[in-house]
Amino acid sequence: MVQLKKNMGSGVGKRWGYNHNTSQNYAKKPTQNTHSKNLLNLAYFCSLMQFELTEEHLAVQQAARDFAQTELLPGVIERDEHQKFPAEQVKKLGELGFMGMMVDPKYGGSGMDTISYVLAMEEISKVDASCSVVMSVNNSLVCWGLETFGNEEQKQKYLVPLAKGEIIGAFLLSEPEAGSDATSQRTTAEDKGDHYLLNGTKNWITNGNSASVYLVMAQTDAAKGHKGINALIVEKNSPGVTVGKKEDKLGIRGSDTHSIMFQDVKVPKENRIGEDGFGFKFAMKTLTGGRIGIAAQALGIASGAYELSLKYSKERKAFGTEIMNHQAIAFKLADMATEIEAARLLCLKAAWLKDQHLDYGRASSMAKLFSSETAMKTAVEAVQIHGGYGYVKEYHVERLMRDAKITQIYEGTSEVQRVVISRDVLKD
Ligand code: CAA
After folding, report:
1. Is residue 153, in this structure, part of any structural domain at all?
2. Minimal CA–CA distance to 269: which of 183, 178, 189, 166?
């Protein structure tokens, strides 16, 4: 198995997107607060647009594909059925560098770009979306949040083992009464001078039991509304932390989803991320990148369902011919392939904008919205193409259909993505 490292391929070959080192960089990198921001962005993007992946990207994609086939495919049906967390597989992903893909190597990460992350997420999710959500939360919510907004001590203490995959992290924003309405945090972090006293309950927490480190959003000063929320690093084994029962879910059943209760948990002040009151902004900024990861997960579920359907329709015969020769099936495959390609381009564009430090909020929500809707639609059609076989477990597509649904819900529902996109387009 190949271990991830920066410049895996020769790295100077074919590129998708912007090439720092060539004379093609003739368009001026746009500033983001000018009137003609969009036109400039377009000119910049078009003048540099290329659709090939680098050798490094291709190598990461291949490594993830190999891992999914050899390590994830065996046992994926059983893990789903018995809700078994893929502990061994996640450990191996960590050893190979997939758990801190975008983290600087000086903090134990693989130093890769967001495009590499999207490619890896797609490949892992084609086979096992329960495993890819563990990877996604650790990479784009926990590691990215800590690397971007944490201080040096927090990075040394928490980011290094998280990026190496030695421990896993979780992101605790949702509450029984604060899902989409994320500013309505009821969990409190009372300021006690040298520490915060944490009380409350968080719901639907991915990696809830397997994580050692929680990033917890909690209200310190309710009078200040969302500006009174703080983001705290909480160790799972702190006194007063209780892990609730594992949720019995429709899909991603191998992943580890729990409620987490806090009762008078003392969190040292040095575990606050950023300035006092930065917690809600921290959550929103981190989720903006996280949504690219979930978009890529949805893309993977869709392309996994499509690949299985294509293969099946070339083998299965009905009415004297392979079913691919029936237009009813061929047209379904055409629609699936077209929508998956559109989803992939949205994911890669959002990733590319993030890598270029351009504004990627709208693109990230568009990628998440379109890819998750595509995942659901494609997986339903994949079951239809497989007929009766699609309805039983060993053909995998029924699991992909169940797994697809969550991508329209977590890290912001499709409705929340439309809120974000519509607010942004109305500024045009
Ligand atoms: N970046 C930076 N700041 C942002 C921001 C962003 N992307 N989005 C909002 N903000 C800021 C706003 O500027 C505003 O600050 P100011 O008052 O200083 O201007 C503040 O945050 C509040 O923003 P809004 O007024 O827009 O807040 P709202 O109440 O209208 O809510 C929302 C907006 C988009 C609906 C938001 O609440 C939201 O994203 N909800 C969904 C939450 C979510 O995604 N939860 C997922 C849970 S984690 C998970 O699922 C992980 C997992 O297990 C897989």
Report:
1. no
2. 189
State the residue for tokens 């971007």. Answer: 148
Cα–Cα distance for residue pair 386/336, rounded to 1 Å: 14
Q: Pick the catalytic residue: 373, 381, 398, 411?
A: 411
User: Could you tell me the CA-to-CA distances from 72 to 87, 261, 277, 321 in Å, in that order?
Assistant: 11, 32, 41, 33
The domain total for the chain is 3
The 10s digit of each residue's pLDDT in 119-133 is 999 999 999 999 999
- 421 and 305 in a common domain: yes
Q: Using CA positions, which residue lies closest to atom 51 of ligand 1?
A: 411
The answer, as to whether pTM is greater than 0.85, is: yes
Domain assignment present for residue 112? The answer is: yes
Domain containing 247: what range? 169-280
The reply to whether ligand 1 has any atom less than 6 angstroms from the CB of 6 is no
Question: What is the CA(56)–ligand 1 centre distance, in A?
Answer: 34
Domain final residue, candidates 253, 280, 307: 280
CA distance 265 to 195: 10
Query: Alpha-carbon distance 373 to 90, whole Å?
Result: 27
CATH number at residue 211: 2.40.110.10
| Same domain, residue pair 217 and 294 | no
In a domain, 73, yes or no: yes
For residue 189, tell me if it sits in a domain: yes
CA of 183 to the centre of ligand 1 (A): 7
Is the distance from CB of 127 to CB of 69 less than 8 angstroms? yes
Give the number of other CB atoms < 10 A from CB of residue 60.
30
Note whether 379 and 293 are same-domain residues.
yes
What's the pLDDT tens digit per position in 178-193? 999 988 999 999 999 9
Confidence of residue 26 (pLDDT cuts 50, 70, 90): very low
pLDDT in tens, 280-304: 999 999 999 999 999 999 999 999 9
In whole angstroms, what is the distance from residue 109 CA to residue 352 CA?
Answer: 19
